Predict the structure.
Amino acid sequence: GGYIVHLSVVMVALGVVGTSFFNEQRDVVLGPGESVQINDYELRYVGTVERQKSNRTEFVSTVEVYRDGKLRYILQPQRAFYPSFNMAATRAAIRSTPVEDLFVVPSENLPDGSVGFRVLVNPLIWWMWVAGPVMILGTVVALWPQPVRTTAPASSRVARTLARAGGSTTGAL
């Protein structure tokens, strides 16, 4: 159990080192069809769709993510405006792998159709998330009751040995 808990501590340390020293962040403004390169990713902004809901207006952007020249996935970060509260809320699009996480966060929709994005690449953050359940598992294993071994007291063993040898068990040893 203790080894498993220590493994989880190493996993957290790995995640902290990765996110602290190797992360990359960039703020960009992209118009439809424009792209930006960050680390090994090329992000291409396709466009934004406005959706009217009963209590809010949603702006859903579509961003294509390329790696090695191939389309890997499509992300859809969102901004919502709540007129009754005069408040905006943002929902980042996140692509998480054991190696790194890619965050695309919309920051502003501009009148010309372009959108401001904050793009973050955080390596090894996944390991910090996995470390929690591993630590719980290690704690459960460490706290699990050990089987009780029943053994005869030492004085009984000595008496049996002496009896077999023909010695006395009542006198001084």
About this structure: The first strand starts at residue 24 and ends at 30. The longest helix spans residues 2-21. Strands lie at 24-30, 35-38, 41-52, 57-67, 70-75, 78-82, 87-91, 93-96, 100-109, 115-123. The two ends are 44 Å apart (CA to CA).
